[in-house]
Write a structure and sequence with these properties.
The complex is a heterodimer of chains A (about 350) and B (about 325).
Chain A: E1 15-27, H1 32-40, E2 48-60, E3 64-68, H2 75-82, E4 90-95, E5 98-99, H3 105-114, E6 115-118, H4 132-142, H5 149-162, H6 179-191, E7 197-201, H7 209-226, E8 229-234, H8 237-241, E9 246-251, E10 254-260, H9 261-266, H10 271-279, H11 318-322, E11 328-331, E12 334-336
Parallel strand pairs in A: 3-8, 3-9, 6-7, 7-8
Antiparallel strand pairs in A: 1-2, 1-4, 4-5, 9-10, 10-12, 11-12
Helix pairs in contact in A: 4-5
Chain B: H1 2-19, H2 34-45, H3 47-64, H4 66-69, H5 110-146, H6 148-163, H7 166-177, H8 181-208, H9 211-218, H10 223-259, H11 271-279, H12 288-315
Helix pairs in contact in B: 2-12, 3-5, 3-12, 5-6, 5-8, 5-10, 5-12, 6-8, 7-8, 8-10, 9-10, 10-11, 10-12, 11-12
Classes of the chains: A alpha/beta (about 350), B mainly alpha (about 325).
The structure holds adenosine-5'-triphosphate, iron/sulfur cluster (SF4) and magnesium ion.
Iron/sulfur cluster binds near residues 307, 309 and 310 of chain A.
């Protein structure tokens, strides 16, 4: 794999994207009984779900930031907010120094096209009624990036070639492809608008194991060639190990640990990170399959008191149940939120 | 069925070998997806559907080429004579023309009246369904994509319209605006668009959640484009299936309204009006004035329903 962690000593990487106190709440539509109660005046608090709870971090130009957490912890929701697909309900995202919710005109267009998403489910992320050629040509036409037919054709073919697909595929429909090929089409669609930032939402989770490595290598090659920045989402730490420079661990809507990739694998600080690492199949711990972390994932409707991880944490104390830990910097570039690190 | 088709392909293969030149591959027309082809195949396989398709085809052909088929123009008052009124099927007129299905109380040839009536019924059914479909699809799409207050308002209106019995709304409307083919169409559109709006909204809502729609927004496509280019083509199936069945119910509604005397004018009789006009003579034994238009109406509605129903089964995503 590429050694991506070494930076030239004098190059200070610029921050491209910054998340400040980012939150997203989903309100469930009140059922009839609740609406009636409201009419009578005895309104129960409307049930809501905080998918993302106060997330702060910055993504630097050219890096690959891995975002890891169990299913349902809010990774996709975070990704959607960063790409502007859904607005946050609290906090802000800044892209190249400007708040994305206040963007207009050319700035908004630059942001929209500059930050593209690769989706989780290759079977749902392509319009089934469009041919591959139309899927790829549409962004060019809509934004006037290429106008004459020959030019569009040339760029569509170039995009297909870049992701390792045959140019003759442009006349086919998405259902005629395998999952891996579809994911490549999705990548081509994102690349055709020449973005500088890609949010990859578990782009290989739905693929055959035999295909996964190929697609990862494609991401690495594209990064080197186009100087892209990635937010690479995964529920599996071992996937992120191959590609990320830094890793953020997410639990129930919060970032519980963030560190350079090497350090997080060598010396995990948060108990949740440790459990995640223990689950990785390896020769050493004689595990052959990926296993879920023990204990049930708590419902995001009703997060546990104090530290949200305490019902499953082997080190939990009375304090953990009562008091939520704050995020601390335990070493330069390393943050953790756990009471165990309060002493340092 | 399967046997013959296999034989056919076998023969084709043999034929190709014999001639020794490759058959040029036909380019699939736009929108001709393998799913759609499989669906049409399933549709054609049923014998009862075959019958209905043939009947519908005949009716449409007759409706389009009317003047060549009908012995008489029932809209032209000079082409028939009261002298020939209520002649039994098969009898001859004063001037020697034969009335295969008899004549009505004004001396009109029933066969011609039925042909013209079929045309009126079809016209009303197709035009009103088409208009209601367009309105309903747009309203449903806008509601699903815009959400919020716009959606709430539109769907309240839909609930309001669907809350009343169809026939009642149409009756009241026509009582106010008067008779006429255009007015009947208007009344049917008013009572039927809400159906499509509701179905379209729920189909569009479920489509909206799919990732390709998020991708479209992510690529900076405007709402109208996402609505009409992406969501609409993928959620149209449900509404189209209902529409095929609704053509029949539009025709029934028109017939009912005309039968009740608020539909089409007497000078442009539809099947419903013909049935109504023969109703008074039914007791005196002149059954043909009501019976034959009634049978024509029945065949038309039955075929439409059967085809629509099979279309529904064929389009069922669980089968494809
Ligand atoms: N549009 C929505 N409306 C209501 N709840 C939502 C919505 N989108 C996500 N959620 C909820 O927010 C939580 C986080 O969802 P999200 O899709 O971000 O998780 P995830 O980490 O991407 O999980 P996965 O690994 O399964 O993709 C889940 O509990 C989910 O049910
Ligand atoms: S704060 Fe307590 S419960 Fe939470 S992770 Fe740290 S030790 Fe475990
Ligand atoms: Mg997800």
């Amino acid at each position: 794999m590429l050694d991506t962690t070494t930076q030239a000593p004098d190059a200070v990487p610029e921050t491209v994207m910054e998340l400040r106190g980012l939150e997203r709440e989903f309100a469930r539509k009140p059922v009839l009984a609740e609406r009636l109660m409201k009419l009578v005046g005895k309104a129960p608090d409307t049930p809501s779900l905080k998918a993302v709870r106060s997330v702060d971090f910055a993504i630097r130009e050219g890096e690959v930031l891995g975002l890891v957490g169990e299913s349902g912890c809010g990774k996709s929701t975070l990704g959607r907010m960063i790409t502007g697909i859904i607005p946050p309900t609290g906090g802000a995202v800044t892209y190249q120094g400007a708040d994305i919710s206040a963007m207009k005109g050319q700035a908004l267009k630059d942001f929209t096209l500059g930050v593209q998403m690769i989706f989780q489910d290759p079977y749902a992320s392509l319009n089934p009624r469009q041919r591959v050629g139309e899927i790829l040509a549409e962004p060019l036409r809509v934004h006037g990036l290429a106008t004459d037919k020959a030019d569009i054709r040339r760029r569509v073919d170039a995009a297909l070639t870049e992701v390792g697909l045959d140019t003759s595929y442009r006349d086919r429909y998405p259902h005629q492809f395998s999952g891996g090929q579809r994911q490549r089409i999705g990548i081509a669609r994102a690349l055709i608008v020449e973005p500088s930032f890609l949010v990859c939402d578990e782009p290989i989770a739905a693929l055959d194991v035999s295909i996964q490595a190929q697609v990862i290598n494609l991401f690495l090659a594209l990064r080197a060639k186009r100087n892209l920045t990635y937010l690479f989402i995964s529920h599996d730490l071992s996937v992120v190990r191959h590609i990320a420079d830094r890793v953020a661990i997410m639990y129930l809507g919060k970032i519980v640990e963030m560190a350079p990739a090497q350090e997080i694998f060598a010396n995990p600080a948060h108990p949740y990170t440790r459990t995640l690492l223990e689950q990785i199949p390896s020769v050493k711990n004689r595990k052959r399959h990926f296993e879920a972390v023990k204990g049930e994932i708590p419902s995001p409707h009703k997060p546990p008191s104090g530290c949200a991880f305490h019902p499953r944490c082997p080190m939990a104390t009375a304090r953990c149940r009562a008091e939520a830990p704050v995020t601390r910097e335990i070493a330069p570039g390393r943050t953790v939120s756990c009471h165990l690190h309060d002493a340092n | 069925m399967t046997d013959t088709s296999q034989q056919l392909t076998g023969q084709q293969a043999l034929g190709q070998q014999g001639v020794g030149e490759p058959v040029p591959q036909r380019r699939a027309p736009i929108g001709d997806t393998p799913q759609r082809r499989a669906m049409l195949k399933r549709l054609k396989r049923r014998p009862s559907v075959k019958g209905s398709l043939i009947a519908l085809f005949l009716i449409v052909v007759i409706g389009l080429t009317l003047p060549f088929f009908a012995p008489q123009n029932p809209y032209d008052l000079t082409s028939f004579s009261v002298m020939d009124n209520r002649l039994a099927p098969g009898s001859e007129s004063f001037e020697g023309t034969r009335f295969l299905l008899g004549t009505d109380q004004q001396g009109r040839d029933m066969l011609s009246a039925i042909f013209y009536g079929l045309r009126v019924s079809l016209l009303v059914g197709l035009v009103s369904t088409g208009l209601a479909l367009v309105i309903g699809v747009c309203v449903g799409l806008v509601a699903a994509v815009m959400g919020g207050r716009i959606e709430a308002m539109l769907m309240r209106l839909v609930d309001f319209i669907l809350g009343f019995p169809t026939i009642l709304v149409a009756l009241v409307m026509l009582a106010m605006i008067g008779r006429g083919v255009d007015k009947v169409i208007l009344a049917i559109v008013v009572v039927q668009w809400a159906n499509y709006a509701r179905i379209m909204r729920s189909a569009a809502l479920s489509e909206r959640r799919r990732e390709y729609v998020e991708a479209a927004f992510n690529l900076g496509y405007g709402k109208p484009r996402v609505m009409f280019r992406h969501i609409m083509p993928n959620s149209l199936n449900a509404v189209l299936v209902v529409a095929t069945v609704q053509i029949a119910s539009a025709i029934t509604l028109e017939a009912t309204l005309s039968f009740l005397g608020v539909g089409v004018p007497v000078t442009q009789p539809s099947l419903g009006l013909l049935v109504a006009s023969g109703f008074d003579y039914l007791m005196s034994g002149d059954y043909w004035i009501s019976l034959y238009p009634g049978i024509a109406l029945l065949v038309l509605i039955f075929s439409l329903n059967l085809v629509g129903d099979r279309l529904r089964t064929a389009l069922d995503p669980k089968r494809s």
